Amino acid sequence: MSDINYTWKANNVKCYKDLNGYQDYVYQTYWNCAAATSGTAGAYDASFAGATPLGTGAASTTGYAFKPFSELTQDDVLNWIWTSLPSGAGKEYYEQKVSGELVYKMNYQTKEPALPWNPPVPPVPPPSGTV
C-alpha cells in the first residue's frame, strides 16, 4: 500500500455577533478529515465529518485566544479544533479512524451504488434540429 495522505479542512463556523465586545466570536466549528492513497490496486479515499464546539471560556481554559474573524486562517481554526478535541479523541484518533475505513475499502473492494428506489437519471438529449 502507498502512503496515506491526510487532509483536514475547516468547512464552516458559527459566530456570536458580539460577545463581551468581541465581534464575530467563533464558538462552533464544522470540519472534515480525509485520507487518500493510490497504488497498483487502485485509488481509495475515506473521510469523516465532525463538529467541535469551542465555547466561550478564557484562552487559558479552552486553549485558544480571540482573533478578529477577518484575520482567521484555516490553520488557526484547525488548531483550535485539535486543541479542543477530548482526550483520546484528538487529531490522531480521527486520522486512524479514516485510515481504518480506507484499509477496509481496499481489502473488501467496496463500492457505493445508486439506491434501487433512487436510480441516477440519464441525461436528456437535446431536441433534434436545435443547436
Task: Walk me through this protein's architecture.
This protein has 131 residues and is an alpha+beta fold. It has one domain. The chain is 25% helix and 34% strand. The chain contains 3 helices and 3 strands. The protein has helices at residues 59-62, 74-84, 91-108; strands spanning 5-19, 22-39, 42-53. The longest helix has 18 residues, at 91-108. It starts with a strand and ends in a 23-residue tail after the last helix. The model is unreliable at 58-62 (pLDDT under 50).
Write the layout of secondary structure elements.
Layout lengths: L4 E15 L2 E18 L2 E12 L5 H4 L11 H11 L6 H18 L23
Antiparallel strand pairs: 1-2, 2-3
Shape: extended
The main β sheet shows up as: 3 strands, antiparallel
Provide the structure class. Answer: alpha+beta
* Order of H and E elements: EEEHHH
**Radius of gyration from CA coordinates:** 21 Å
The CA-CA distance between the termini, in Å, is 49 Å
For the record, the count of structural domains works out to 1
Measured by DSSP, the beta-strand proportion falls in: 25-35%
Order of strands across the widest beta sheet? 1-2-3
Uncertain residue ranges: 58-62
Q: TL;DR of this structure?
A:
The chain is an alpha+beta fold and 131 residues long. 25% of the residues lie in helices and 34% in strands. It is extended.
